[in-house]
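Standup, Tuesday
Yesterday: got the pipeline producing structure tokens again.
Today: sanity-check two examples.
Blockers: none.

Example 1:
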Amino acid sequence: MFDKILIANRGEIALRVIRAAREMGIASVAVHSTADADAMHVRMADESVCIGPPASINSYLSIPAIISACEITGAQAIHPGYGFLSENANFVQIVEDHGLTFIGPTAQHIRTMGDKITAKDTMKKLGVPCVPGSEGGVPDLETAQKIGAEMGYPVIIKATAGGGGKGMKVAQTAADMKMAFRTARAEGKSNFGNDEVYIEKYLTTPRHIEIQVFGDGKGKAVHLGERDCSLQRRHQKVFEEAPGPSISASERARIGKLCADAVAKIDYIGAGTIEFLYENGEFFFIEMNTRLQVEHPVTEAIFGVDLVREQIRVAAGLPMSFAQDDLTINGHAIEVRINAEKLPNFAPCPGRISQYHAPGGLGVRMDSALYDGYSIPPFYDSLIGKLIVHGRDRNEALARLSRALGELIVDGVDTTIPLFDALLAEPDIQSGEYNIHWLERWLENNMAS
């Protein structure tokens, strides 16, 4: 087992890893920019190293600075959290070249799944159902128009290197194709340095269902059920729950086994998430995230496992501490993402926290790096906390979420807390009858600027 690990991240996810390491008796090293000198993850870690100025490109994305921090502190392994360098295959290779351990999948697995076309081809060969679409990249507008006509509209054009909702444009009709195709390519080029795109059939009322998988890197893998992440704004998740209210036990077992078998065949190591669109009883693969997800706590809640602890264990060469037969769902869990944003436009709202009080009580977990007097810097993502609740069933979880939101105090900046208060009053949310388009339409009708 490692004696010391470095967390190449910040905020609540850095705290999450520090806590898991401490329970395992492992020392932790926090890295931080000058803007994060007073951050909670810096205070909580056993050691800290400043790695650069506020801009991420010069700090949290600076591979030389992170490697140097490992060498200075004697850290043997790096946990990437999510975002930043967590899915950067070159970073993983450099980590390994320096005799360090990357707590996550191999560089090859990240490369394979990081390219949407390669990922789709790989999953097809492994028996995972995929959305109908183009065979590989689409080189030009004329080809795109031909594919759209053959497949039938609507279609969605996606950047092969895309993520976070960038480089994705829907063409509802043939007349929309020119603008959608050019915009998707432009966004791919500007955000990811790659303008290659592909085309898929656009499903009209799907849910976003993701399967949590975990592998030991030696041909064994399990699945930990699904999460429903359908409530999204601009392809960004805001509300996640497990198990999915629309998924039956037999569907869960079928798609879960397919996913576990697929990652076992490629000797995948660590945590991963295979994402699907689900419509009319069918699952269609869209992408795989080769890292820990923001919403991993809802899976931890219903299965009673610590996914970060498990990541560290298998990275150190230990076997998984559970088998598929050990994993039984207990109750229902929901996570809402608390962002420092001003409604109704969701504009980022950095500033000083004048008062912070986390909710508590049975079945309530608050993952946050906030504290009284903390100044949220304007340089990073607006996520400031994740409120997770767990109940014996979905109704209890919803009631617990409502109660916990009422206890949560974040003064000094605007947040998205009022959004969730409003959503919980909606019959569709109470019944679980929603899809990936529901929130956008609700916002248009209820929070128009």
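Example 2:
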Amino acid sequence: MTADLTTTTEATLREAVRGIVTAELGLAPDALRDDDDLRAVEGADSIKVLRIIARIEQRFDVELEDSDVFGVSTVDGIVGVVTAALPEPT
């Protein structure tokens, strides 16, 4: 299921990204702050990061650049990369 890009707000985007990240890492939704360094989260590895990115790309129907994705390490950073990749609302 992809998002309706015209109604995606930063809050819903952030909530969706956090949900994907916590699900892939096996964390409770409230166990991760938006500014936590994901590289320091127990159980996070490169395979899980790739799955997180794939799920985000599918959810928002975007293609994220590897250089952008691997340059961030927080939910806030991921939200910024996804926001930049979304088309401008018409």
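Quick observation on example 2: The two ends are 21 Å apart (CA to CA). Residues 24 and 51 are 7 Å apart (CA to CA).
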